[in-house]
């Protein structure tokens, strides 16, 4: 039986303070395509892959021919922030602390390509990040378990040896479906009650709060 352990992290809203940037840029992308979508609804959908987010917000009876225009507009708008994406406090320190305790660090995110590169630059902890399971690597994004499974595969650990940290209901549902331990942070703006209901084993304010409580967290189990 393997003794190795994986700490899998979502990125947007969990390690980098970008959820509200996504809300505004998706809102503008929808507006340009002629759709009026309330920002509160977009916020709830952040964390889904682009196609799932559009379906969640516009419904299955929309004209899917317009999806590409919306996705392209969002990407172009969001890309204007790539050079100044703000990491959440202590995000990189948290990853290094866990790596120092023997945890394999893997990212699981719906971002890919240049966007993922920008996020990783913001975190500034590539020295301890083993790899990333991105939107390019899976057929189904969160809340399907595929991104978490892909991340575990990179770390080569079974579900009972992994913890997944995220900020959305979709993150918690994906973790539960894969059988890893779900841990949530409030830095993405999702209410604690929603994260608890979705299966979060523990909830912290942000990466800095989790780092401050590592010795009393699920990351201390079995040490």
TrEMBL record:
* One Pfam family in the UniProt entry: Hydrolase
**InterPro entries membership:** HAD-like_hydrolase_sf, HAD-like_sf, HAD_sf, PGP-like_dom2
**Keywords tagged on the record:** Hydrolase
Q: Does the keyword Zinc apply?
A: no
Q: Which domain of life is it from?
A: Bacteria
Q: Which GO terms describe its molecular function?
A: hydrolase activity
Q: What class of enzyme is it?
A: hydrolase
Name of the protein described by the UniProt record? HAD family hydrolase
């Amino acid at each position: 039986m393997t003794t190795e352990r994986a700490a899998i992290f979502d990125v947007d809203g969990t390690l980098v303070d970008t959820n509200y940037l996504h809300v505004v840029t998706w809102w503008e992308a929808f507006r340009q395509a002629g759709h009026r979508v309330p920002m509160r609804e977009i916020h709830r959908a952040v964390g889904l892959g682009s196609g799932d987010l559009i379906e969640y917000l516009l419904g299955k009876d929309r004209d899917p021919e317009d999806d590409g225009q919306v996705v392209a507009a969002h990407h172009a708008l969001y890309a204007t922030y790539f050079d100044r994406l703000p990491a959440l406090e202590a995000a990189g320190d948290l990853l290094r602390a866990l790596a120092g305790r023997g945890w394999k660090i893997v990212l699981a995110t719906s971002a890919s390509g240049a966007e993922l590169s920008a996020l990783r630059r913001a975190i500034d902890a590539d020295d301890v990040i083993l790899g990333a399971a991105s939107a390019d690597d899976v057929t189904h994004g969160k809340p399907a378990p595929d991104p978490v499974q892909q991340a575990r595969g990179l770390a080569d650990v079974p579900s009972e040896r992994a913890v997944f940290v995220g900020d959305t209901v979709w993150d918690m549902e994906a973790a539960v479906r894969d059988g890893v331990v779900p841990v949530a942070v409030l830095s993405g703006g999702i209410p604690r009650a929603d994260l608890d209901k979705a299966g979060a084993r523990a909830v912290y304010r942000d990466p800095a709060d989790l780092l401050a409580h590592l010795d009393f967290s699920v990351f201390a189990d079995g040490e």
